[in-house]
Protein: Cytochrome P450
Amino acid sequence: MTTTAELVSGVVTNRVKPLVRWGLTHAVPSRVLKDGADKGDLQARLTVEAQNLSPEEIAELFSQIRAQGPLVRSTFSYVSVDHAVVKEVLSSTQFRTGFPGDDRPAISRLVQWSRREGLHPVEPPSMLVTDGDDHTRYRKLVSRVFTARAVEGLRERTEAIAAGLLDELAAATGPVDLVAAYCEKLPVAVISEILGVPESERANVLRMGGHAAASLDLGIDWSTFRTVDGALDEFDEWLGKHFDHLRANPGDDLFSTLLHATDDEGRLSERELKATAGLVLAAGFETTVNLLSNAIRLLVEHPEQLAGLRADPSGWGNAVDEALRYDPPVLLTGRSAAEDTEVAGQHVGEGSMTTLVLAGANRDPQVFDNPDAFDVARENARDHLSFSAGRHFCLGAALARMEGEVGLRAFFDRFDVELLPGAGRRPTRILRGYETLPARLVQRSN
Ligand code: HEM
Structure:
């Protein structure tokens, strides 16, 4: 029988803590951001309005921030859309990931107290917000699977997966939603094969990932917060079961390797294991789906550039980088100063947050000529910061580039595409891409 103490403890864990956490990390910041946006604070506007803006509209906001200088003090943090500053901060050892400890101890203690016990992509021990030796240890264990060379070995298999999905698309009659039928399915299939996730689980993984995507956002409403929390709990439990299965039936996939890493290799605790494996799996498709949908839209809207790529397929790699530059899947990231320092001639005090707008750095006219033009032949397209920079540079960049190249080329070789009304962007703020992209497809004759 459940005792009163257990009952109270359950209510505190399941009801009170989430409410406190939501209030402190979303409700209050959201109110402050909305007020800031109403008063014209540019960073607040970026956070509040970004999700409703197209890449063309958001570029206007970047220009306004740029006009105020390379590092702008906003009400909430410093913000930069300057390529050199964004790169410098991301590469600096004087900045760290995650939020600084709050200098108001009561709030800080309350945030700590209300922390989730389970997985969260932007709470330790997630690699994204871990620095120092632990970060090196996590990264080393998984990185060899994602080197450029290892990824080239996956190209043929990716082509075969893409061809299978395109066969299914060709068999469809009438309009299709390209996100559900292609852009999501390709990356989830590829990362699942690398990680040993069976085919029967992929739809489930996609569903959980979709619900958890807003976990990177600030200022989400209560209902979204509960959906995210529920999806993260479910994902946590699913990972545990999947690990049990792989412990009993190991394969030659990355998850099996991680589970059997020895102490010499830097064995991970169960919690670290889930955080690392969960991040690689989720990051492996949540962003690449956006790359594919954003790039399809751009190429359909620039038919002369698409015709050039069909005539000379050697340009596809660069086209992927230009799509990443022009409409990146990750809008921004943040760092906090680990000590008093100076950036772009300005003093930045220890603990100060800096918002680094990757999408804004990609439009810096000091680096990119005519930055607001989409140009698949742009010589330095690859200088974009869409994969971040420094120690946390995207581990999956080579894989994402390869999937983008294979996925887009195969798609446009097979079909002529007419985009139909009804396209909608995802409701997330940091992850940017399409939720639906309705289209009519006509098979090409060659
Ligand atoms: C177009 C697709 C992708 C984009 C735009 C992208 C973007 C990013 C960005 C911006 C970061 C760093 C965030 C920061 O500095 O705060 C990052 C980190 C990461 N990405 Fe990706 N990513 C993509 C695909 C992938 C794929 C396919 C994988 C699969 C392995 C992956 C795995 C990771 C991991 C594990 C990290 C954490 C690295 C660390 O903290 O050391 N990403 N990604």
User: Anything to note?
Assistant: Residues 4-38 form the longest helix (35 residues). The chain has 19 helices and twelve strands. The pocket of protoporphyrin IX containing FE is lined by residues 127-128, 139, 146, 279-280, 283-284, 287-288, 291, 328-330, 333, 386-388, 392, 394-396, 399-400 (CB under 6 Å). The chain has one domain: 4-443.
